[in-house]
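Thread title: Can someone regenerate the structure for this chain?

I was given the following input by a collaborator and told the matching structure tokens would be attached. They weren't. Posting the sequence so someone can regenerate them.
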Amino acid sequence: MPRSVNNVASRARRRKVMKLAKGYFGRRKNVWTVAKNAVEKGLTYAYRDRRAKKREFRALWIQRINAGVRQEGLSYSQFIHLATQKGLGLNRKVLADLAMNNPEAFKAIVDQVKG
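Best answer:
Regenerated them for you:
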């Protein structure tokens, strides 16, 4: 019995990977074996870094809040402690945005948490 080969599916699979490799440098963009490895590694990095991005942004928000509350005579940890005691319903993303783009509103929040 002759060997059955599904050439349509194989070609489609290769075309999909080569499309993802578009824009890569050198043989990574046009040689199947090299492109396949490069795309697999790139997708692995993309999966990992979608999670790392959340950690990095949280750290950035904390730094911005800390800089804002230091001007009001508090540390970040003191501010967060007082904010949770008062039941402040704003998350770090919103607080960091206020500290950076609207200092008057942030000062009002800090005064409310202090008092």
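The chain has one domain: 7-114.
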